[in-house]
Amino acid sequence: MSDYGVVAGAGTVRFQRVLPGPIERVWEYLTVPEKRGKWLASGPMELRVGGRVELQFLHASLSPRHPEPTPERYKQFENGCSLAGIVTACEPPRLLSYTWGGDSEVTFELSPRGRDVMFVLTHRRLDRKHLANVASGWHTHLGILEDTLHEVEVRPFWSTHTRMEAEYTQRFGVE
What we know:
Blueprint: E1 6-7, E2 13-20, H1 23-31, H2 33-36, E3 52-57, E4 81-91, E5 95-100, E6 104-113, E7 116-124, H3 131-149, H4 157-172
Antiparallel strand pairs: 1-2, 2-7, 3-4, 4-5, 5-6, 6-7
InterPro entries: ASHA1/2-like_C, START-like_dom_sf
Family: Belongs to the AHA1 family.
Domain Activator of Hsp90 ATPase homologue 1/2-like C-terminal: 22-149
């Protein structure tokens, strides 16, 4: 299994990872704001269909041991940004879906795999021109989640994201 996301249909990118369990631990990193804030974004989440999601991103806080300047094209997000969504599916601790700031939707599927957890992330209804950017973001965030769950030093966010965006642009054949 590759760490790279794949195009899984028109406007859809999918990632698979095997993460250290148990499943309840991984679920907490999806749903508990303080834990989610270590790899993605903090913020409240109502764990019910129709519940509100508010993701509060602060990328500089994700890899504090590797301070890096924010790339120029992302400077407007340097001090954080928020994204709102609505929960569309919630079946603890196996399935969570929510809208992603408007038209797209992200789904997390968890299943036990011995002592580990099969983690599948699918982001749907993306504009093709944003596929490489979204894939590089998820690739970077998931890498930080893996590092966090393995209790190792987390990789730097911005340099990883920049490298991954170039790779996904080439892989997906988008500009």
